[in-house]
Amino acid sequence: MAVMDIVADVPEALVSERIIRLQAVMQKEGVDAFLLTQNVDLYYFSGSMQNGYLFIPSTGDATFYVRRSVQRAKLETAVKVAELGAFRFFGETLAQHYPYLFGKESGLRIAADLDVLPTQLYAKLQETLGSAASCTIIDGSTYIRKLRMIKSPWEIGRIEAAAKVVSESLTAALHVLREGISELEWMARIEYELRIRGHIGLMRMRGFNQEITTGMVISGPAAAVPSYFDGPAGGLGLGAASPQSVSRSIIKRNEPILIDIGCCVDGYVIDQTRTAVLGKLPETLQRAYDASETLIAKAEEMMVPGAPCSKLYEAALAGCASANLSDHFMGFGADQAKFLGHGIGLEIDEWPVLAKGFDMLLEPGMVLAVEPKFTFPGLGVVGIENSYLITDQGARKLTQFKDGLILLP
Amino acid sequence: MAVMDIVADVPEALVSERIIRLQAVMQKEGVDAFLLTQNVDLYYFSGSMQNGYLFIPSTGDATFYVRRSVQRAKLETAVKVAELGAFRFFGETLAQHYPYLFGKESGLRIAADLDVLPTQLYAKLQETLGSAASCTIIDGSTYIRKLRMIKSPWEIGRIEAAAKVVSESLTAALHVLREGISELEWMARIEYELRIRGHIGLMRMRGFNQEITTGMVISGPAAAVPSYFDGPAGGLGLGAASPQSVSRSIIKRNEPILIDIGCCVDGYVIDQTRTAVLGKLPETLQRAYDASETLIAKAEEMMVPGAPCSKLYEAALAGCASANLSDHFMGFGADQAKFLGHGIGLEIDEWPVLAKGFDMLLEPGMVLAVEPKFTFPGLGVVGIENSYLITDQGARKLTQFKDGLILLP
């Protein structure tokens, strides 16, 4: 049988290096093994996203137990692939393959990505593993999130490729932006441009109940409607069953058009925001837009290795206070989001977060989307968002689309 | 502050009826309350998808505890809305609001949708609820899945609206299907047509790690590549980080083009498959395509109230055996999917499932997508898929696009 065109994607050396790093964390934390369950985590640590469980012992070789498709997994990863077989025997299989772990007298501590693993499946895993050894599955999601924060040059290349796709797609779609088009219709055009350039159709998000496919185009008053979405702007959406992002609102002259879009190309996401206007922004909004540029410039300056994430958020709050815009920053009133930026990579909501209490220090290799925005109920949302790589020399912008308000006739 | 255009969507009477039905199940099962956590479940039982927890006691009024946006939730649901406040005090808040439950001597049994709730969040909920009462959170996901199986006339109307969107979009996109276009490019066009007609951008799927935005257009050998996706066909995809659905393969003459697409409009999904060919199918594939039409006709006949779901799958297997197509049914070899059809509604993978061991009986109000398909490695996939409502008079087809192989010059 021909299995055409399926090849390993993530370099084998990179996969090995990631596994070794995770093993070092496990050894330090006194964890015996890690069981990866989520598609993105599987891809990160094996290079394959087939359906199964990746078992990484704290010492020794990993095994990817695959339900489907075994033959495809073997082509995608250099990690050892085994058939998962009947789920209820998974514990026994592991005990046979890893006798030096499952033969331990004391109880086994196995970490898993419990921030995303559904409880029902967790219980089933606990049961089958528990049938083979005294064993506790503990939450290892912070280990994963911390490792994934630091991007390799190969990953930066992928993020840059996604940045190029967004830039080209927005440039192409701007040609059809006109008074009278609906947010939905123009977004459909942006999505078409993104898709033909390789966007996989959605941007993966780790947070429970959060959904994003390409972001949002929200204009005028519809942009300023509060929403459940964990971001500074939500949008009116298409009804209670899709209560965020684009609506059927018509784009009008002299109203801000917030274009907060991204894509996922070959696994990696990019996130950028530009504000456009057909005509001229009302003075209040122009002033707020200018403030967003000031804030992002300030953040660019501050993003050096060793800077605490929370300090960047504090600086932004101080900037808003002095510009008399505190009430409008990242949403309005009770619906303000409490951050300035977030990590991006395989998912759109990675670590670190530029937020209060997030005291982690910036390190070379981190990639962050910084998105100062201001919400004015009844008027709209304005702001800017760029993505940056932290380097020894400071922040390097990965976003390719040019900065500045997009003024259209 | 103007919160424009936000209105209740699900009729208030329908929400009340659903809550009363869930309460009846709780009373029968000896459960004290249900805590809904997932966005789709929240929408079903309240009409709102804002971020929070819906608490439904086995007797008495429900409360939707909302983190964000409280003001939007109040406009979307007639259920009582309260601010969630600090999460760690959620247990105490519940104890204050529901003293007749939390004052019980014996331990409280609170059900939740544990098939989707992440383990980490489950542990936090267990902790805050446990601080207020002796309390166990049990898995109530089957109650939800069973209630949601039976659609109301209002829901059928929404599914029909989605069926109309898919039918119109495919009709429009067929005008640009030509030799030499890539799967990706043609899919981008279908998605554009779906989107401008109100598709929310993704189809929700309950299964862990499963992703679907609009389905797949897969052609020739690229269609027959096995994948992790829990369906009869996977597709080559766009690389290891998106290993299913469309690829950059070029659509050629005399090869099958499997168009398995759907959309989500106002919350409800539809799922349909047609096979197209530019020219003529090879004889083996034409024969298999004809068999898929025979199988779906047989299923249509058998879909009457009282028929066991598993019998429909058995009948399809028998049909395949007599047509000598068993090895090709719903995938090939080790990668065969083991079902004939699945429920649809707010999610694409609802109950019931037409599969072995699924002995539930069909009932009026169920909506099923039936999708007999045949996979030929190196050649492609052919088949058909329609969605049906079970009525007292038998199966009523909801799919609007006309049946039959799409023959293009």
Automatic annotation (TrEMBL), chains A, B:
One matching Pfam family: Peptidase_M24
GO molecular function: aminopeptidase activity; metalloexopeptidase activity
Superkingdom per UniProt: Bacteria
Keywords, sorted A to Z: Aminopeptidase, Hydrolase, Protease
Creatinase N-terminal domain span: 18-150
InterPro entries: Creatin/AminoP/Spt16_N (IPR029149), Creatinase/aminopeptidase-like (IPR036005), Creatinase_N (IPR000587), Pept_M24 (IPR000994), Pept_M24_MAP (IPR001714), Peptidase_M24B (IPR050659)
Residue ranges occupied by any Peptidase M24 domain in the UniProt entry: 158-392
Protein name in UniProt: Xaa-Pro aminopeptidase
Organism of derivation: Paenibacillus endophyticus
Lineage per the UniProt record: Bacteria, Bacillati, Bacillota, Bacilli, Bacillales
